Target: CDP-6-deoxy-delta-3,4-glucoseen reductase
Amino acid sequence: MEEGRSESEALHVTLAETGKIFPVQPHESVLAAALNAGIELAHECKTGFCGSCRVRILEGAIAYAEDPIGLSDQERGCGFALACQARAQTNLVIEAPLMPTDRPEPTDITAQVVSVDQVCGNITRLRLSPVGGMPAFLPGQYVDVVTQSGATRSFSIASAPDEAVIELHIRTIPGGMFTAGIIPALKCGETVALHGPHGLFRLRPDDFRPLVLVATGTGIAPLRAMLAALRADPDCPPVALYWGMREQSELYLADEIATLGAGLEDFTFVPVLSRAAEGWSGRRGYVQDAVIEDLPDLSEHALYLCGSPAMIAAARGRFLEVGASVNHIYVDSFHFAHNL
Model:
């Protein structure tokens, strides 16, 4: 706290890019104060998981009630903070991205079930045909499935905008009301209510960098959408996709990924198994380690990470250690609720 200031007195935050100033109260996060002032700083989960609200502290000091999982030690050492969790201790000057203006507006969507396929063990591939045509969305975004009770469940879109269906990959949570109850009972022709698209995780074609796509589990879904969309890009850069699973039988999308990648000029697909059987001839271990073994210098790459918070945190830290740009690491971190 600044000397001579009372605990109830507001501080001020200045945006370095525009010079705009907004007050922040002692009980507010930097993000909450910005939103209250009508300034749409980039954000998504507001819980410290996703890292979408990352800002750089140029002047001043902040504090956290608890260290957010979405910020690595390397990022913190470079002056970055998560606005959704950071509390100002002094007046601040920050560099902060605003919400992108190219995002399609979320809307209510009615879609018919085209197919419900159990593709492996506990993963279902749900294909939906939107009534009235495909809504606008960006590769990497997600939709909410709205139940009859009004509850929502969020799933990344696995299909590209120019494909005929909205495809979702859904992992069954044992005892889950939605994934274990509603999804298996869906029939072709039934309607499903959706709302979206949502999310800041999206393909950034203006980066002009080689792409490294990294997923674990059903985190492959938005990366499949990106890969499908890249087929239409005549200037598509080199693409390397690393997919971590436990066992070979879980690589439910491997053949399709290889087929999509064959349509690109420079594509590498590396499945990585953490519990591979003796007969597996491919890569073993953790997916982030495989990336660094192949690409020991990531300073010129754009990296897209999708998976559990633990994988995201570990991968982001390792990638920064080998030179990855903090401004070119894009993440979609998810965790499972017990009643899904």
